[in-house]
Design a protein that fits this description.
alpha+beta, about 40% strand, 6 strands, single chain, about 190 residues, globular
Length: about 190
């Protein structure tokens, strides 16, 4: 009983201290110009740190970039971010990514990711869906440091490759399962 009271007290104090800091920035939807600027910057950083991403960009039919996603949770968690779909170096549309989770989790983090669509079929699935739930539809390969060292344009055979970048914060694990990607109306 005494341990469970300490446990609950710890998490209440943690939530009161950490969660407001994570969401202290003004909550607003980014403009198309802001998303484009952030997507450009994120891709440049990704290409500098991960040559495999730069190489895949030469064969990708489209690249969906989410420059900054905020994830937070205390037992129940959520994440949100906005990004741009790039086709031939130009923005073709804007999307958001949303996910909710529950379980043993506590913390706040931000990160970005880019999805490299290798096949026309995968790109059309994204563009024609009313909301793409990751895990349903095209196959996705998460590229870690080990895979990145051996990935080339000739070995890339999956529909979509995902690269994570700029992870900051205090929350364990990154994943896409359960995320939903939906097209936004931005001008």
């Amino acid at each position: 009983m005494k341990n469970s009271i300490r446990f609950v007290t710890f998490f209440v104090v943690f939530a009161m201290l950490v969660m407001p800091c994570a969401f202290s920035q003004k909550a607003y939807a980014a403009s198309a110009e802001e998303i484009d600027r952030d997507a450009d910057s994120a891709l440049l950083k990704l290409y500098e740190k991960t040559p495999a991403a730069k190489e895949l960009s030469t064969i990708a039919k489209g690249i969906l970039v989410f420059p900054s996603i905020v994830k937070g949770g205390l037992i129940i968690g959520g994440q949100y971010g906005e990004g741009a779909l790039r086709i031939n170096g130009k923005t073709d549309g804007y999307y958001n990514t949303v996910a909710a989770s529950y379980g043993l989790q506590a913390g706040v983090q931000s990160f970005g990711y880019a999805l490299f669509f290798i096949t026309d079929k995968a790109l059309e699935y994204l563009k024609n869906s009313k909301g793409w739930e990751i895990g349903v539809g095209p196959s996705i390969v998460i590229v870690d440091a080990g895979l990145a060292s051996s990935l080339t344009t000739t070995t890339a055979k999956s529909d979509v490759y995902a690269f994570f970048f700029d992870q900051k914060g205090l929350m364990a694990g990154l994943g896409l399962q359960g995320s939903k990607i939906t097209r936004l109306d931005k001008k």
